[in-house]
Amino acid sequence: MAVPPTSHRIDPATGVLSSPTGRYEKRLAELAGIYADADAFAAALAERGDSIVYAVHEVRPAAARGDLIFGTTFMEPGRIGDEFYVTRGHIHARANRPETYYGEAGEGLMLMESPEGETSILEVRPRVMVYVPPLWIHRSVNTGSAPLVMSFCYPADAGQDYGLIARSGGMATRILADGTGWKAVPNADYRPRSAAEIDAILATQD
Amino acid sequence: MAVPPTSHRIDPATGVLSSPTGRYEKRLAELAGIYADADAFAAALAERGDSIVYAVHEVRPAAARGDLIFGTTFMEPGRIGDEFYVTRGHIHARANRPETYYGEAGEGLMLMESPEGETSILEVRPRVMVYVPPLWIHRSVNTGSAPLVMSFCYPADAGQDYGLIARSGGMATRILADGTGWKAVPNADYRPRSAAEIDAILATQD
């Protein structure tokens, strides 16, 4: 028997997706070590450590191989010092799996990094589809003053790897407030990957 | 080297997707044999045979396996007799590949059929995500009086098979105008698939 079709309404104001198979949220206290300014993070933690930074609604199919996972990401606006709220970020565990992100509400960025350490930054706006190709690390950034809501779609066998970013001391680029806009600055804690690690990622097959 | 990220703006009024890698359109004259009312089709053909029924913008990546194809479908409103305009419809050539369709503008239906011949009909509206699971034949129907625009996403190795529908004399269900709404009626030309053909589709692996 084939799995039955389903439909899901997306609320662009809240990111709520009807009939999800799962939902999770990340609170500020769970994002220790992500931001540059340790003092500002400690202060924010004391003030609003249990506040939500982002929440995900998703629909995961029963079977993995060849299927799709889709859902929404809702990100609160906010900063740690000058640094905008970001998601933890990941590369797919099967590194050659891509992802699409589609702007539903708000203003933000998709911050992406190739295995070699090249940064790519694309603006997310309503009705803008961002394609994160295979092999790119990616993280969302809310650069606006309102929630950033996106819908996403990726192969069901992709998985998430958070270790690659952690081993490099974060992503090569940070996004800071700059007047009413944003600017990209180098991450002082960043340690480029070794040639062997880069080659291993680029060699991902199947 | 990793393929660079890209972003694409969707115009919900026209279905135009910026920076597509491909675009195609289907004109009425290319859809012979799809509709029930042969006389009405002949009359429509004489009157507007070269008019567009639907147009697709798409982004196809270089590599297939594990990647995604995404884009938009724009459908004109219209009818052949009482039958609403539909897309040709397909099952994926790798039949166990799914697809998501997301309403951007207009009102329509996703008309779906399992290998066994079960019909599923889900309404497409702005902000509604329809999940077409693996193994389901699917066709879009514009039941409104304005263009129906959707964005879609599916695995890059899915492919399209149009023969399965043709061999069955179409899909089991047709969508007709009913006052200001729609109704589903049996397709008199439909020939159910054999048990062997059903089994072969359900056995799709990898």
Distance between the amino and carboxyl termini of chain A? 27 Å
Number of structural units classed as domains of chain A: 1
Could you say which overall geometry of chain A the principal axes of the C-alpha atoms support? globular
Q: Radius of gyration of chain A over alpha carbons?
A: 17 Å
Helical segment tally of chain A? 3
Q: What is the top-level CATH class of chain A?
A: Mainly Beta
Number of strands of chain A: 14
CATH-level-2 architecture of chain A = Sandwich
What value does the average pLDDT of chain A take? 96
Largest sheet of chain A: 6 strands, antiparallel
Order of helices and strands of chain A: EEHEEEEEEEEEEHEEH
Strand content of chain A: 35-45%
Oligomer: homodimer
The CATH homology group name of chain A: Jelly Rolls
Report the structural category of chain A. Answer: mainly beta
Do you know the CATH topology of chain A? Jelly Rolls
Major β-sheet strand ordering of chain A: 2-3-4-12-7-10
> Greatest interface and its residue counts?
A-B, 55 and 55 residues
Structure at a glance:
With about 210 residues, the first copy, chain A, is mainly β.
Q: What can you tell me about this protein's structure?
A:
With 206 residues, chain A is mostly beta strands. Helices cover 12% and strands 39% of the residues of chain A. Chain A has a six-stranded antiparallel β-sheet with strand order 2-3-4-12-7-10, with no helix packed on it. A three-stranded antiparallel β-sheet of chain A has the order 9-8-11, with no helix packed on it. Chain A is globular, with a radius of gyration of 17 Å. Chain A starts with 5 loop residues before the first strand and ends with a helix. The model of chain A has no long low-confidence stretch (mean pLDDT 96). β10 of chain A pairs antiparallel with β1 (6-9) of chain B. Chains A, B: It is an enzyme of class 5 (isomerase). Chains A, B: GO terms for molecular function: glucose-6-phosphate isomerase activity. Chains A, B: Its EC number is 5.3.1.9.
